[in-house]
Every structure is written in structure tokens, then in C-alpha cells.
Amino acid sequence: MIKKAEHVAIIVTDLERSIAYYRDMFGYKLRLKGQNPVREMAFLYHENQPGFEIELIQDREPQGDYSVKGIVNHLAFTVDNMEEAMNYYRQKGIQFNSEQPQPAPDGGKTIFFYGPDRELLQFVQRNTGTGVEG
């Protein structure tokens, strides 16, 4: 059911500074910026590995110490069909953090769950109509 590792999410304190750092130091390009009521997010990709991204997350209002979850917030995996993947993995014992997937910034779907050591994991079904932006 899993196609590949999708992205790793990193908590940052200055989104624009972090975008510039990964762009200037390592050649990453901005694919998408989005926001919700509490966070701003940016998704960066590298031309040599466009299928794996770095998600940068900045809280609009500081949420306190991140030591409980760490600077690396979660690891995401790509799935083709969210509902099929959720049904398949529920049968394998995964309990998702919500009953239904949430909308992603690109119009796709996401859902979170925990691994065996409470590491935060995520499934992502991308919106196939979204192209890579630079």
C-alpha cells in the first residue's frame, strides 16, 4: 500500500529564513506554501529527488517547547488511495488520530497516526492535478 517516503516535517522558527537556507545551501526549490489557522508550511523538493520533500512548519503563535516531539515533527508516506490505505492498515492494527483524513495544502488528503514508539507518522494522498512549482 505504501508507495514511498513522502516527506519529513521540521519545526522552524522563521519560515522564510529556513526556505532560503535549504535553497541556498542545498539547492532545494519551493513547491508549495500553505497555512492553516495555527501554522504556516512550506514544501521543498530537490531536482535530483523530486518525490521526497522537506516540509517546514512555523507556528503562528509559539506553542512552547518542542522537546516532547522534537525538531523533526513527523515522517510521511505517499499512498495512492487514502480510503483503501486506511482500511488496509486498520486491519493491520493501526489506529488513526482522526476518523477522517484532513485536507492538504495542495488539495490532497492527509491523516496522522503513531508508530510503536509514539513517533508521529502520516499518510499523504497528493492532489494529482498539482504540478511542481519552482
From TrEMBL:
PROSITE patterns: VOC (PS51819)
Record flagged with keyword Cell membrane: no
InterPro entries per UniProt: Glyas_Bleomycin-R_OHBP_Dase (IPR029068), MMCE/EMCE_epimerase (IPR051785), VOC_core (IPR037523)
TM stretches of this protein: none
GO molecular function, one term: dioxygenase activity
Superkingdom to which the source organism belongs: Bacteria
Gene Ontology biological process terms from the UniProt entry: L-methylmalonyl-CoA metabolic process
Keyword terms: Dioxygenase, Metal-binding, Oxidoreductase
Name the UniProt record assigns to this protein: Glyoxalase/bleomycin resistance protein/dihydroxybiphenyl dioxygenase
